Amino acid sequence: MRLLQVDDDPIFNAVCEKHFSGRSDLEFTQFNNVSQAERRLMDQPPVDVLMLDLSLPDRDGIEFLSTIKQLNFKGRLILVSSQPRSVIDMAATLASSLGLNLVLRLEKPLTPEKLARIDEAITAAG
């Protein structure tokens, strides 16, 4: 199982790194910008789960959804953002309209319950 996390929040990234890095069933990769993520999505082997923030330094995560579709991403998509719920919902609607496999959308901050929901979404992808 390959999980790609794209987020520029250092605290969120540290929590995810600690939580996901030790798992033997998961290849965890973390980037803090869209450019690196786009390059990785073009490479093999394919990413199984993409966990995407909506506010990134080099490109808007919502805008990146169209690129993800163009790259023929077939994995599961998880949106995690500190944006207002209405923005997250708009991104979810766009992802669905593009035919992306959106399995979870969460608002930051991360809680143990939200982390458990991410774990469930990743495990379900296996």
A few lines on this structure:
The chain has 126 residues and is of the alpha/beta class. It is built from five helices and five strands.
Shape: globular
Number of helices: 5
- Placed side by side, the strands forming the largest sheet appear as 2-1-3-4-5
Question: What's the level 1 CATH class?
Answer: Alpha Beta
Low-confidence stretches: none
Biggest sheet features: 5 strands, parallel
**What is the residue-mean pLDDT, rounded to a whole number?**
94
Which architecture does the CATH hierarchy give at level 2?
A: 3-Layer(aba) Sandwich
* CATH homology superfamily name: Response regulator
CATH topology: Rossmann fold
Report the β-strand fraction as a percent range: 15-25%
Radius of gyration (CA) equals 13 Å
Order of helices and strands: EHEHEHEHEH
Count of extended strands: 5
Taking the alpha carbons of the first and last residues, their distance comes to 6 Å
Structural class: alpha/beta
Helix content: 40-55%
- How many structurally independent domains? 1
Question: If you had to describe this structure to a student in words, what would you say it looks like?
Answer:
- The protein is α/β, with parallel strands linked by helices.
- The protein has a single domain (2-124), classed as Response regulator (Rossmann fold, 3-Layer(aba) Sandwich), CATH 3.40.50.
- It has five helices and five strands.
- The protein has a five-stranded parallel β-sheet with strand order 2-1-3-4-5, with helices on both faces.
- The longest helix has 13 residues, at 85-97.
- The chain starts with a strand and ends with a helix.
